[in-house]
Amino acid sequence: MNTVDIVLALILLYGLVRGFFRGLLAEIASLVGIVAGIYGAIHFSYILSDFFSENMNWDSEYVNLIAFAITFVLIIFLISLAGKILTKMAGFAALGIVNKLLGAGFGLLKMAFIASVIIMFFAATNEEIELVSKEKLEESKLYAPVKVIAPAVLPSILREARERDLLDDESELFENKKEEV
Predict the structure, then answer these.
(1) Which of 171, 131, 132, 130 shows the shortest CA–CA distance to 151?
(2) CB 3.0 to 4.6 Å from 104: which of 17, 20, 61, 145, for a disulfide?
(3) Rounded CA gap, 181 and 170, in Å?
(4) pLDDT for the residue numbered 178
(5) Which of 90, 80, 106 is nearest to 20 (CA)?
(6) 5, exposed or middle or buried, with CB in 10 Å at 0-12, 13-18, 19+?
C-alpha cells in the first residue's frame, strides 16, 4: 500500500462513514437536492427575479444573481428537509439500520465517483507535469479500480472534453474507453 492508496482509502472511508451516519435517504436527498437546485434555479428563478425587480430598486444583473442563489438554496433546503423527515420515518419503521447500511454503500460509491472524476483530470495533468510517478500509480491497489468509474458512468462528458481539447486524445483515460466513446 503506497501513498496513493492511503489518500484514496481515506476518501472512500470518509464517504462510507458519512453515508452510514446520514443514511441512504439523506445521502440521496443531498444529491437530488443539488441537481434539482440547479435545474430549479435555472428554470424558476425568474419568478423571484420579477418579484425583486418590481419591489426593489436594484440593478437587473444583481437581481438575477440573487434570485438564482435564493432559488437554488431554497430548493436544496426543502429537499434536504424532506430527506431528513424520510430518514426519521425510516427509523420509526425499524428500517434505521438498513437505511444506515445502504447509506454507507451509497456514500462509498458517491465518493468513489468523485475521486474518479478528480483522477480523470489528475491523469491528464500528470501526463504533462509528473506529479506522481507512473510506478507509484501502477503499484497502487486502488488507483486502477477507482479510475475507471467516472469514464464508465460519464462517456458523454469525456466525448465533450475531447472535442473541446480539454483532455489529450492519447491520455491514459481513453485507453480502455476509445471504442465506447
Answers:
(1) 171
(2) 20
(3) 13
(4) 42
(5) 106
(6) middle
Q: Which residue has the higher pLDDT, 177 or 55?
A: 55
CA atoms of 146 and 8, how far apart (whole Å): 8
Neighbours of 75 (CB within 10 A): 22
Alpha helix positions (H), 56-95: 60-92
Every domain of the chain and the residues it spans? 3-174
User: What is the rounded CA–CA span in Å between residue 112 and residue 120?
Assistant: 12
Does residue 102 contact residue 24 with C-beta atoms inside 8 Å? yes
Instruction: Report whether 19 contacts 104 (CB < 8 A).
Output: yes
Residue bearing the bigger pLDDT, 116 or 88:
116
Tell me, what's the pLDDT at 45?
A: 86
Can you read off the three cell numbers belonging to residue 123?
A: 491523469
- CB 158: neighbour CB atoms within 10 A? 21
Whole-model pTM? 0.64
Task: Give the Cα separation of 58 and 3 in Å (integer).
Answer: 52
